[in-house]
Each structure stands twice: as C-alpha cells, then as structure tokens.
C-alpha cells in the first residue's frame, strides 16, 4: 500500500510538471492522452509490485504498456489484432519528425498538431516511468525529482516570459510529499528533537518533530524558490527547442510593423522565432483561405519581384477586371482586430467584395487590396473560395472574358526554357487541357521526389535558382511556387506568384497569424474560370489543397500497365532461378519448417481479406427486391470507403453522407455526378411510391459504386491501400461481432 500511494503522488507530480508545457503551445489538448499513458504506466507498476519488486520484470512490462498505449492512441489503424506492426513504427517516426518540424519552425506558443501531441505524450510517459521506477520500485524518491525537474525545466527554459508561481509550486510540493512518504526511520534521523510532552514516547515525539520541521522547511523552500527570482536580474534563456525561442525578446504586442520587400525571400519570415502576432482576426469562415499581400508577375534570376506601381485600380465587384467567374458561393466576413502589416499592404482573401477600413484604399487588377495608411483593424467581405466545385470543372476550358496583358503572365526566362520543356514532356500528357496540365504539374511537385526544407543546397556556378531546385528537389514554399509558375508558363498557362500568410491557428472566434505563417503559392489562369489558387508545396507548412487541383482522369490503363510489367518481371525472375537439391533429410527439415511458418503467416494474413471478399460477394448475390439491392449497394459503398479510411458521418442522411464522402475522397466532377446518382436512387428506393427503382437503375447503381470505389482506391497512398487490402475494418468488425452473434444464436435456440 505504501508503494501504491508513492506511485500515485509521483504520477500527480509528473502531471503537474507536464501542465507547465501548456505555456509553450497554443492549447493543452496534449494533457488528456498524457494523463492516460501516465495512468497505464503507474497502474501497471502498482499491480506488478503486489507480486514482485524485480526491476527486470517491472521495467520491461511498464515500457511495453507505454508503447502499446501510445500505439492505441495515435496509430490504432496500424495495429494487427491490437499488436503493433512495422507500420506502427513508421507512424511513430512520422509523428516524431512532424513534431520536430513544428517545434523548430514555430515560436512559442506553437500549434499542437498530431506530431506534437504524440511526442509530448511519449515524453510525459517516459518521465512517469522513470519517476515511478525511482520512487516506488527503488524507493529512492529523491532521484525521482530529477526527471520531474527536467520536465518542468523544458517549459521554464523555452517560455518567452516567466512562468506563474503555481506552475512551480504544484510539482515541487508533490515531490516533497513523495519524500515525506518514504520510510519513516530513515527520515527521522534528519530531525533535531525537542523535549517532548509528559507521557509522550520517543517514537511519537520523533514523528511530531519530523512533521513540524519538515512542513516548515518545505514551505520555506518553496516560498524562497518563488520569491528569489522576483529580485534577481533576468538572465538570458537557454533554449531546448530552437523553434520555441523568442529571438527578439519582445513580449506579445511588442512586435514592430512588418512589410513586404520588393525582392521576395520568405526564409527569414519562416524562421522568425518571434511569437508576437502579425494578425489577429475573427471570421465566420470555418476554413478560411490564405491571406494575399502581394502578387508578382516579374522574375529576375528566378526570384519574384513586386513592383511599386499599381497595375490598374479596379472597382469592387468588377469580376472581369480581376479575372474571376462568379459562381453560387457563400459570402464570408473576416474582421481583423489587430494588424502589424505596414501600408500599403492589407492582407485580404481573394477576391474582396467589400472593405471597411479607416483609411483610403484601392484594389488593383491582380485583386490586391492596398491602403494609404497603416490599418490596425478592418473588415473584409469576400465570396467563399472555390474548392471542389463541379461548376469549376464544367466551366474550365470554355471561352469567356479574356485575360488582359496575357503575355506578361507567360514570360519565361530564356536560359531555363529548354529545361522546363524537358520536365513538361515527362509530366504533362499530350492533349491535356489547361486544368489537367496544371493538375499534373502540381502532382509532380508534391510527389515523393521533392522535400520541404528551409536549408537549400549550394548552387552550382552560374546555375539558375529554378534549375537548382529541379536538380536538388529541396526547398520551401517560395521555390515550389516559383517553379510551378515557370512550368505553367512554359506550358502556355498564364501564371503569377502570390505571397501572403497562411490562415494561422485558432478558431473562428480568434485566429492568430505570425511571421512564421508567411507563405507563397501560384495562381493560374484557366480559361472559362479565371484565376485559381494551386498548392504545390507539400507537408504541413502549406494551405489546404483545392479539390479542383486534384487529377480527375481515369488511371486504369497506367495501373494495368504497371501491374503487367511487375508480373512479367516476377515471372522472368522465377524462371531464372535454378532448383536446389537437398543433401539429406536434415536439410529437408531445415527448409520445410520455414516454409510451413511462411504458409501459416500467409494464411493468417489472408483471413481478413478473404472475409471482406466473401462478405461483399454474399451481399452482391443475395436476392431481394430492387429496393433491397440498392440498400446493399449503398452499404457496400460506405463500407468500401470506410476500409479506405473515409467514413460517413454516423446517423447522417444519405445526401449528407454522400456530400461528405465526395468532399473527403476528392473524386472530382465525374465522381460527384456518380455519387449524386447513387444517393438519388437510394432516396427513391426508400421514399418513392412502389415500383421504384427500375432494374436498369439498380444496375447503374452497381456500376457507379464499383467505379467510385476504384477511383478512391487509386487516389489513396500505398500504405492506405495495403491496410485496406490486408486488414479491412469491415472484416475486423465482422470478426469482432462474431462472439455476440454466436451468443444470440445459442440464446434463441434455447
């Protein structure tokens, strides 16, 4: 019981120290999973110590429990019968690298993404494991204070201002409570006894003296630790995480105003450690777009240049002047409550429909809003940016309002024209439309060959920056955007370079944009639609990926070709291998055992895929009315998409579920039409008078479901397709519900 109480107090001390990490991040959402893993680690320790005190048993079991808890919380879809797989390890590595990128890229308070949550949870779990091992298993609570202190030191060393007194007092008091709870005989030797009361024995007097002196010393120590720093001159901080530091030493609100340089170089902004907001705004847009600050059409030595002249002032609402097509869009409003951006720039979404600012302003033909004086607050109304809109895909390529000064947006530096043409020959298919070519270029730059990095390799003598990027395939948003502009222009698609800010972090009540949220992206002119935003920059340091920018064409032929070539290669390889004769019976046994083990593993791996296949075939062949057949096809579609990681909202209507699945899957215009047809037929089967649907409608639904599943399967990454094939969630659910079904059958028979 004594060790159990020690474990509980130690766990509370660890959580109290971990709570101070919230001053380094925008919220404390990581505390919930951290508390869960601490509970697992401490619970295992308490349970095991009732049987053994051996460290060789406790440490491995608690470490295994920590690993399984992390896997269950952050990589549940990679588990195989609740056991980690190689994909689980890969997911953990991905999350750690993501957290490293976030911590080294953002100033405190940094955003809390999945990687940060995983890393903080793992760190807190390891501290809890170490502290519990020292305090309860080894009965050395003094040593347990070291990992608790280290956890608190991370926050104290990286915070931009002094932490509040209770952030230190809580873990310190709990650690002292752990010390007070250790063996009484050992601690009583520290006590200087005073004369006891009449009738009071020595043990009782020692306990009283120890309690009085211990509590007094503890309170005095904590009070001094809190009071002394208030009179000691502030010393420079020693930062543990580079990205969390406050390089300027300015508190929030102390940032000077920022402005856009005519020669754009975003690296300094992206590496800016200052956490002070550049913008704070409120919006009714649940997914706000990037905020444009400037547009560059001219490049000098591969670098975008923004001229000081205004490219023609246009009135609000003149869509032809700014090059947009008005669709049926929802009007949104953004209210900036604090801006540190210096005039004439005024960060705004594209394209503004109304501007309310206390200074003279104008908008140029590139859709950039300019203001005469610095504006600390303003309100802008705009139409919700086009995303995965069928109207965009339908309108692309139509003749409409022409683009003025088209040649300006097609200029390519002659020294790299040949290199750009070679890339386009490999990326763009002959006969592709403007939109298809733009999609292919974006997919090429977002491919696995390219890496996001703020550290660029050295340029060769006389090498053009675009050539350097295409050779090294390393860069940040500026290189990705500039390269897509050049490739698009070389393909004959007008393009321009846009610089501004990502939407920032927070909620609709308040979002915060910092200097490190600076971003660049290309806008391409698509005939029939106008200017559209694309996002070639991969990873988390980019804006949302517009749905229209995803490839829509059918890739069945390329997939079949790849599969055929792979099969041919495997066949030729098998024919080239000569059979090996076994020397004796012992050798035969040596190869038979691995073969049997391999066959067993293959059989186990085939259980779930075969189960999913049998379930689908049984549902397909089951006879019934046309209404029942349509219902089964809908269930097959929902389950198939669920196996691919796209789940329908629980309890939603078919139409809401269809819209959600289309938005999540990115199936494009044709897929949207197919989903609409499936949902309409399903609604007719459920609510229309008898006689609906017709047999040909049922057959069409089956074809649409097959095509939708094939489209989504091809669009998913290799890891997701492999998981869907080897461990489909529908099959896992079937096996998981098997015991309950067996019990129901037995109960009914009785």
TrEMBL record:
Keyword RNA-binding: no
SMART domains, A to Z: TGc
Membrane-spanning intervals of the chain: 30-48, 55-75, 114-134, 215-235, 595-615
Region (Disordered): 243-292, 543-581
Keyword Membrane: yes
Pfam families: TgpA_N, Transglut_core
InterPro entries in the record: Bact_TGase-like (IPR052901), Papain-like_cys_pep_sf (IPR038765), TgpA_N (IPR021878), Transglutaminase-like (IPR002931)
Keywords for the protein's UniProt record, in alphabetical order: Membrane, Transmembrane, Transmembrane helix
Name this polypeptide is given: Transglutaminase-like domain-containing protein
Low complexity: bias regions: 555-574
Source superkingdom: Bacteria
Residue ranges of domain Transglutaminase-like in the record: 469-538
